[in-house]
Amino acid sequence: MKKIVNYILPAFSLMALAFSVAAFNEAKASNAQTAQPVENTESATPGQRVDLTYAAEKALPSVVHIKYVQNSKIKTVEVESDPFSDFFSDPFGGFFGRGNGGRQKRQVQTPRRTATGSGVIISKDGYIVTNNHVVEGADELTVTLNDNSEYSARIIGNDKTTDLALLKIDGNNLPAISIASSDNIRIGEWVLAVGNPLGLNNTVTAGIVSAKARSLGANGVESFIQTDAAINQGNSGGALVNARGQLIGINAMLYSQTGSYSGYGFAIPTTIMNKVVDDLKKYGTVQRAMIGIQGGDVKKYVDSQKEQGKEVDLGTMEGIYVSKVVDGGAAADAGIEDGDVIVAVDGHKVTNMAELQEIIARKRPGDKVSLTYLHEKKKHTATVILKNEQGNTNVMKHADLDVLGANFREITDAQKKQLSINVGIEVIKVNNGKMKDAGISRGFIIQKVNDEQIKTIDDMQNVVKEASTSNEPVLYIQGIYPTGKKAYFAIPLQD
Question: Tell me, which fold does domain 293-385 have in CATH?
Fold first, then answer.
């Protein structure tokens, strides 16, 4: 909704709500206590009339309108200098070399931004699921229920990889939706998309499940439910429900040339949603399990080889071709090699990368899975112990500023003038912790961490959180002492 991610697709593109890129856009369809899965979906028998009014009545009270506000801010940006600016402002400037172009820093004020999207109440005490792109960067979030009551919402956690976010409002006995397992849906089954498209609140559109485990070729975990129920800007974060009004997916994207509905929409299945919500509530971040391979669909690999005039026989045209096994990863430990083909997980057939991603997305580091694979066209089975992004099986939690063992405050205008600096936070107290171990003392001013400018304590908190769950959980700190001496420190966040 607030930013665009371009996918290169034949003749079509996806459009992130609220933006367009030339004639072809990809838009995420937004204009912004976990319930347990219930019994299996009952499908209509052949020739039976399908009545979707019950589903609409059940789902509508659980779908909310989300208003996003990003306040106006002062930002420092680099711009190209005007080589003639000094010449015209100073009659001697051009002759004495001050108007020499290059880059200069300027402060600009960003406009206040508002947008809207949808969300789904998943618990009576006020937990709401939506898309990450609906709420990312928000300073204020207002949730409006179906009965027009309004609540201020806070973000419990978010996950860019799956494009999901968990919100919380303070309420009791709220109309939580029933959640069904998306594993049980069938292609051709009737579904409803419920949300707030194009500024029209409480809107329901109908269609069928057009495909399962659909990947669109972007970065992240992708195993979408594809539907022809009309999804437009503002639908992002809303509900995809079955004929019984049970949640089976969170609407995320539309497939369009224009940014408006023209055929298909895509929803994140509840099997992925449930895991993400659980992790965000328990750990503050998603416990992402990794097999430790690079690769893609067998058919795509074979087709690419044919285009190069090469004939390839892998023993199958379905599964995941392993182009590279990551050193020290779970697959490497299990003996899987480059060129192998994964065909099943825990006895369940997998035909493409999206299906594999969906299964692994439900797991946590340390979980075991049984992989069936072909090595030189011969079938083998291996037990794989999944790892996290850092190559171990530890639970990953967002580190808090407390781990640093220090107190901070934003620098004053006097400090900025004295040291000729524009940004920074001052270390005003050092206790036992990572900063003391690194040798940072009271009075040190932190200006950059991991190449990110630090203007506020919130900036510091965000960098610490991001680094704590990255492949390299280290803080590279740049700053200056009150004497003017510059210093650099590296602080590992893991023992």
Answer: Pdz3 Domain (2.30.42)
